[in-house]
């Protein structure tokens, strides 16, 4: 990818399209294909999906515009962008903590993300050697159980994924990433479409459709104990909002870091719409492919993080050409995870390499090494450390990292970004950087980023801790 270096601090994406591809590469990943179906299954379907979509629209998209505009104005790593903008706008230097928080969150996410990417990796091989052939629900569960029971296999694939991520990050955002994503995203889309088609033909499609789109608030917002006593719970709303941040890569500076390489003539508004649409479409297609198969094969929708890995292999094992499709699908999933994980470390690496402090390969190696170490605990959560004595509130280390980052840390980061853009910096900065064609559109966005998004996030937090 050719470079147009018109900033002394940062290189820029060669074209507008390149920014879009990288941002879509960051957004579309395990969040869409692994996490969205499993949490939708756990939290009961339609009403959860609706809350998630509302969060994308009213919180995620406005915050994404804010992150991109801050990044493009700052043209530095998120930590220094926040510091410089706070200084230029004469507000508190403490805003740079947003950048620091993002670096920490990125680490934590990568340290479990790479383990799940490792599952996909292992399944590329399983698919290729024909392990899916003729698999039923029980067999699929056993295949997945064998993998997660083995610390050695999990650590091997986790290590390989971290090395892959580190290598690309070491080369810089200008590497082959752009070309790769241009091909892989459409291919992933086509393959998902094939799977949806298969689910229509061979799965319980009507039930899957009802599960995903029938809005039944009672089912989602009440939990019943063993004695049959049901109480209201606000947790699904927190998880739906957290997932809106996670799936769009918001709240930790990943999109801000990418925004810092974005050329000035690109429109932030329309880029955001495209990224959110692509991301949502892929997630909904994953749901449409998976749930009909879950119901047709007597699987449990609330089975947890293994859902995709026990439902799709059954389909691949039964469909014509399934061996090829299955291998290809998990390979594409690894690639989608790869282009996301790169953005997880970009804020940290951009900061370490700023002002020539460290070379990119050195910075990438340091960050990759640390994430690898943290990830060992995530891999062991499924076997050696799966016992109750290693759990907190019934959650393993893996679950805790997954829950804490998506549902608390990213929304907190997003809240700070909304407050900074909406209140701390005055309206001229966002207005000139967004350069929206219509003043009404700007006013609508500005109102959302000042009032709706922050109030929404705070209310959901208060609700979840039982204050409201
Ligand atoms: N958006 C990615 C996914 O859905 O898989 C995960 C992710 C990437 C989250 C980058 C946060 C981030 F900064």
As laid out across the biggest beta sheet, the strand order is: 1-2
Number of strands: 2
Query: What gap, in angstroms, lies between the N and C termini?
Result: 51 Å
What characteristic shape results from the CA principal axes?
globular
Report the bound ligands by name, code or SMILES. 4-fluoro-L-phenylalanine
Share of residues in helices: over 70%
CATH class: Mainly Alpha
The arrangement of helices and strands along the chain is HHHHHHHHHHEEHHHHHHHHH
Biggest beta sheet attributes: 2 strands, antiparallel
Range of strand content: under 5%
The gyration radius over C-alpha positions equals 21 Å
Question: What structural keywords apply?
Answer:
binds 4-fluoro-L-phenylalanine, 468 residues, globular, 2 strands, two-stranded antiparallel ribbon, Amino acid/polyamine transporter I, 74% helix, disordered N terminus, 19 helices, 1% strand, mainly alpha
Question: Could you describe the 3D structure shown?
Answer:
This protein is mainly alpha-helical and 468 residues long. Helix content is 74%, strand content 1%. It has a single domain, classed as Amino acid/polyamine transporter I (Up-down Bundle), CATH 1.20.1740. It is built from 19 helices and two strands. A hairpin with a 5-residue loop joins β1 (222-224) and β2. The termini are far apart. Mean pLDDT is 91; it is low at 1-9. Residues 26-27, 29-32, 106, 109, 246-247, 249, 252, 254, 340, 343-344 line the site of 4-fluoro-L-phenylalanine (PFF).
């Amino acid at each position: 990818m050719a470079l147009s270096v018109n900033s002394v601090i940062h290189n820029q994406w060669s074209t507008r399209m390149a920014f879009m591809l990288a941002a879509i590469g960051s957004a579309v990943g395990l969040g869409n294909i692994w996490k969205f179906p499993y949490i939708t299954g756990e939290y009961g379907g339609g009403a959860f999906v609706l809350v998630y979509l509302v969060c994308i629209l009213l919180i995620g998209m406005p915050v994404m515009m804010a992150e991109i505009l801050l990044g493009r104005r700052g043209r530095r790593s998120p930590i220094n962008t926040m510091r410089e903008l706070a200084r230029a706008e004469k507000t508190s230097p403490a805003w740079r903590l947003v950048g620091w928080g993002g670096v920490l969150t990125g680490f934590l996410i990568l340290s479990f993300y790479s383990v799940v990417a490792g599952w996909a990796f292992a399944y590329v091989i399983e698919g290729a050697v024909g392990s899916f052939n003729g698999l039923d629900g029980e067999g699929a569960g056993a295949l997945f159980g064998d993998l997660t029971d083995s610390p050695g296999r999990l650590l091997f694939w986790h290590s390989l994924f971290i090395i892959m991520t580190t290598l690309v990050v070491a080369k810089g955002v200008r590497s082959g990433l752009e070309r790769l994503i241009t091909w892989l995203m459409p291919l992933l889309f086509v393959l998902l479409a094939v799977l949806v088609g298969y689910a229509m033909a061979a799965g319980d499609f009507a039930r899957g459709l009802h599960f995903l789109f029938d809005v039944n608030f009672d089912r989602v917002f009440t939990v019943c104990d063993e004695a049959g006593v049901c109480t209201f719970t606000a947790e699904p709303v927190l998880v739906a909002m957290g997932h809106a941040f996670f799936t769009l890569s918001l709240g930790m500076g990943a999109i801000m870091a990418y925004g810092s390489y974005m050329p000035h003539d690109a429109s932030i508004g329309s880029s955001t719409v495209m990224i959110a649409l692509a991301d949502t479409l892929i997630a909904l297609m994953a749901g449409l492919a998976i749930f009909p198969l879950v119901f047709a094969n007597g699987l449990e929708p609330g089975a947890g993080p293994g859902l995709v890995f026990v439902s799709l292999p059954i389909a691949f094992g039964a469909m014509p050409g399934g061996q090829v499709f299955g291998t290809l699908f998990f390979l594409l999933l690894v690639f989608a995870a790869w282009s996301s994980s790169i953005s997880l470390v970009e804020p940290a690496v951009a900061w370490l390499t700023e002002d020539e402090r460290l070379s990119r390969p050195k910075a990438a190696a340091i960050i990759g090494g640390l994430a690898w170490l943290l990830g060992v605990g995530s891999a062991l959560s499924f076997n050696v450390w799966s016992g109750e004595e290693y759990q907190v509130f019934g959650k393993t280390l893996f679950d805790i990292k997954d829950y804490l980052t998506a549902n608390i840390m990213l929304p907190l980061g997003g809240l700070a970004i909304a407050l900074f853009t909406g209140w701390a910096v005055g309206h001229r900065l966002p207005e000139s950087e967004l350069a929206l064609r219509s003043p009404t559109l700007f006013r609508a966005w500005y109102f959302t980023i000042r009032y709706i998004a922050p109030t929404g996030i705070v209310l959901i937090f208060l609700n979840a801790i039982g204050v409201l």
